[in-house]
Amino acid sequence: MLQLTTYRNLQVFLVIMTAIGMSFALFFLQRYMGFSPCPLCIFQRIGLMIMGGFALIAALFHPKSMVIRLLLWLGSLAGIGWAAIVAGRHVWLQHLPADQVPSCGPGLDYWLDTLPMQQVLKEVFAGSGECASIDWTFLGLSIPEQSLILFSILILTHLLILWRIVRPATPKPLAR
Predict the structure, then answer these.
(1) CATH number of the domain at 7-98+135-166, please?
(2) Which residues lie on this side of the membrane: Periplasmic?
């Protein structure tokens, strides 16, 4: 019987979720709906891609060494953890009273061209008016709220992967 929670299957699940999330953002939200991603959205996507990259490496090479598995897990967790933190900040900005919403800034491209990276991060996390606007909802949830739910599920998946790294699945003896 196929066991769905093996190390490799869980890594493949993360890769598939990355592909679905990125496809949804690019093809539906950007191309079909016409939304341009705000700086916080871009940073969430970067975190999701980092997670997906580490998960892809883990799924393709299926390392036997616990140390390598843990390093890949940490890289993947760092990516999705980053995305979840950014999504949490984004949700917080969207729930600020209108008079406390930061004004719109010059944009991420300008910041990247003119400011050092540390200052860019500070500006992005300070947020802007475009990050606080709610352009679309589904089931009463804004895009960052939906993203935060997805990222939370992926973090829980990482806990299951850690369990598989520490306590690998043992094959069951065949019944006679």
Answers:
(1) 1.20.1550.10
(2) 29-46, 89-145
In the chain, DSSP finds a helix count (H) and a strand count (E) of 7, 2
Q: For 9-26, how does the pLDDT look when each residue is reduced to its tens digit (9 = 90+)?
A: 999 999 999 999 999 999
d(CA 145, CA 90): 8
- Say how many residues make up the chain: 176
Q: Cβ neighbours of residue 10 under 8 Å, at least 6 residues apart? A: 157, 160, 161, 164
Contact 169, 3 (CB under 8 A): yes
Helix (H, G, I), strand (E, B) or coil at 109: helix
- Tens-place pLDDT, residues 32-50: 998 888 888 888 999 999 9
| Residues forming a β-bridge with 138 | 141
